[in-house]
Write a structure and sequence with these properties.
It is a single chain. By secondary structure, the protein is mainly beta. It has one domain: Jelly Rolls. 6% of the residues lie in helices and 45% in strands. The strands form 6 sheets. The chain has a 7-stranded antiparallel sheet, with no helix packed on it. It has a 7-stranded antiparallel sheet with strand order 3-4-5-12-7-10-13. A 4-stranded antiparallel sheet has the order 6-11-8-9, with no helix packed on it. β3 and β4 form a beta hairpin. It is globular and about 60 Å long. The two termini are 27 Å apart. Keywords: Iron, Metal-binding.
Length: 327
Amino acid sequence: MSNLETAPAELTCTNTEDQAGRARLLRPREVPLGGPRAMTVRRTLPQRQRSLIGAWCFVDHYGPDDVATTGGMRVPGHPHTGLQTVSWLFDGEVEHRDTLGTHALVRPGELNLMTAGSGIAHSEHSTADTRVLRGAQLWVALPERHRLTDPAFDSYAPPPLERDGTRVSVFLGSLLGRSSPVSTYTPLLGAEITLRPGRELTLEVDPTFEHGVLVDTGAVTVAGVRARAGELVCRDTGPDRLTLEAAPGEPARMLLLGGSPLGERIVMWWNFVGGDHEEIAAHRRRWQYEREHPGTGQARQYGRFPAQWTETLPAPELPHVRLKPRE
């Protein structure tokens, strides 16, 4: 998914918190994906209180969205660098096309992971059969030594584990004896968890990981902090157990995210992750040139545009000043 803000902030992201095991509630801000009738997403990461959870650097939650009213997801071709996009749906279907030649359908319970690396472009549109769209779009920052790796695309449908009123699907990393075969560039965890009303689940987790719980439905108490739909609870490294408790009344569904602290500063602006202002500016210039000259035969950072694309998104203007590092 693209960041469609017309004036995105340039963020220098770093985590320097050292309070072991502290949990914090992050409330979302609403961001429209397009015009006044467009689908709205709820963004919890990054924000002032927190930039990263492990290498997870961007968390959008959306839906349930009535596609007949908003038109659903309509994101034309746009670029990414220095990151991986993780698409996870709860309801609906999204068509993905990219400049590697990938044409895929994103469906509920199936991981779609796109590695941007040195540069890729893709489009995302909800399908004609979709009536309700609900899901999460997540980004993972690539570490400096892999930031310009070759682009790639992976998909995986994890088999759900059902036990005592709990349903868990592990799409990245390992949890409860289940492991995803999808490789990542830093240690990561990603899982969908559904709890029956009032159910409590205590998980053994890696104490060297930072963790975050994004609530999709219901209400959940995470490490003593209560969160509702669209909210994110993050917890620092330290404890080797994480307790999740669903509120009475309705099932609680959530995404559990985790990872080793990235240990690096990254600059994230629009759809790019880089090491500094100059790198981001170079990515932007190249994208603008390639979208204005889609048929040139010379080497292209973002690859060949699919024949089905009739439009691509222009990059916003860069800010005129540098923002200071956010500690």
